[in-house]
Write a structure and sequence with these properties.
The complex is a heterodimer of chains A (113) and B (112).
Chain A lengths: L3 E4 L2 E4 L5 E7 L5 E7 L6 E7 L2 E4 L7 E4 L5 E6 L8 E8 L8 E2 L3 E5 L1
Chain B lengths: L3 E4 L2 E5 L4 E7 L6 E7 L6 E7 L4 E4 L2 E6 L4 E6 L8 E8 L6 E3 L3 E6 L1
Parallel strand pairs in B: 2-11
Antiparallel strand pairs in B: 1-3, 3-8, 4-5, 4-9, 6-7, 7-8, 9-10, 9-11
Amino acid sequence: DAMVIQNPRYQVTQFGKPVTLSCSQTLNHNVMYWYQQKSSQAPKLLFHYYDKDFNNEADTPDNFQSRRPNTSFCFLDIRSPGLGDAAMYLCATNLAGVYNEQFFGPGTRLTVL
Amino acid sequence: GENVEQHPSTLSVQEGDSAVIKCTYSDSASNYFPWYKQELGKRPQLIIDIRSNVGEKKDQRIAVTLNKTAKHFSLHITETQPEDSAVYFCAAPLRGYQKVTFGTGTKLQVIP
């Protein structure tokens, strides 16, 4: 089945230790998004790729970086995780066009010790 | 940018009753309004959406209404069931951008 896959599902890291989260998709969608979702809150957009074009949200901390080496894969790098970065990280994809449904991956739950 | 307000933040209903969640948006150019359901520990999933050229859309027990003049849209769930318990998010696109703004979410509890 075509889908959005995220690895790992659970990630534990230490304060300040870099971590990379992975997202892959078999939908051949040209837009990929990274969201941060904290408990009882709405997903907060960190950035998105429209094809190879990177679009950062104005309030996304510099501590968060992203790479999209090809259409199928997108990575979220957290350079120096702080306790406040503990959250669920959701990847989503869609075809370009505002009417097109975003398909979400299952998320990666990040714990920072 | 687009500002989306969602009410109520929590909603408890008896099984079989109806539930209504309302969102207001600020950008009059917004033309697409999806609703997502997120069960505990799971991903958001689209349950229904509406485009600005229609005033209402229905899918079995779920309906969405849109009032463009007042800039609000609502989710209606009839004959609620325990499996409808979840957090529901509305969203609206940001004009000119390939992204949406989510509402703050409504936690719906259906009491058997």
